[in-house]
Write a structure and sequence with these properties.
single chain, alpha/beta, Rossmann fold, 6-stranded parallel β-sheet, 4-stranded parallel β-sheet, about 40% helix
Length: about 375
Amino acid sequence: AGAEKSLITLLSLLDYSRFSVDLMLFGHGGELEELVPKEVNILKPLKYTEFAALSMKQAITYSVSHIDFKMFSSRIKYSLGIRKKKFSNPQKARIFWQSVSNVIEKNPKEYDIAISYAQGIPTFYVADKIKAKKKYAWVNVSYRLDDIEKEFQKKYYDQYNKIVAVSDSTKEILLETFPHYSRKIDVIYDINNPNFISKMANIGNDYDDHFAGVRILTIGRLAHQKGYDIALKACKSLKERGLKFKWYALGKGPLKKEIEENIKVNDLAEHFILLGVKANPYPYIKNADLYVQTSRFEGFGLAIAEARMLNIPVVTTRFDAVYNQMVDGKNGLVVEMSSDAVCEGILKMITDQELRESVIEYLHSEKKGNVEEIKKVYELIG
């Protein structure tokens, strides 16, 4: 939940004597919602958000009792639309908005500033359903779009005064798709507050299995982007090499069943452990021996930054934005995007004591966090 945690950090740093903030969520009741500052007004869920959470039987009952089948029809349209084949996230977002936007109500208020803090559906929502004097769109992934998605999304981004990329590489990749936006794209890094993370790392629960070997941790949505197939192959190789370890993963997502099946087929149940989602992941990071990121692409890589702030050595794949924060051989290892390379990187970081001590020493000395990025936010929103 990199974007969500970044938003919580940003909200925790805002001066509420200057700003009044409404927050619209597309998913309510999540673990991170309790961390939203009390000064923030969380708006009531959209009617369609509540409807989509109903079972199919409940949805039919609701539609019949209200003599209104518009939301039901939109839900079926979207469901059928994404069953035909595997779609990318931008494709799913387009199909969703084309299917249900007509039943999503507009916000009746007029705002000075409206921000969509993630690409896709939030961007479409703020463009279509919010009235504001200025609109800003955050982009927090490497956003390459085919011609269909580019054409669809352009009409929404055209409505924004500024587009904010969370890293220089994210900006560069976005400009490959939308070169005509060069004058309205700014870079504001995901904000990391080391004091908040250090405080959270010392409260709450962590591993409870009393394991005495090497603890490896990965944080990320159980999705193709995060490269869990790479992680699982590397895990199998580490097991075959005789390493005493457990590899834990924090996250949930569409590939959960597929990952669980892979774990079962390759007899990795004692070595690759899915922990689900934790509102406070920081004790898990703090008590890991190694943080591993196997992502195919990232806008920034917030979990890596969090591991660095807690002085945990990192092994990561070489995704687009990785060198925005990684110094290969200094604060961790950057390896090729393959299971063999990840396996070798892990073994090197664990067995090369001199390297490990050097990395940990470097981590203790490098700059922590970037709360100064809040100044850029203030400059943007006035």
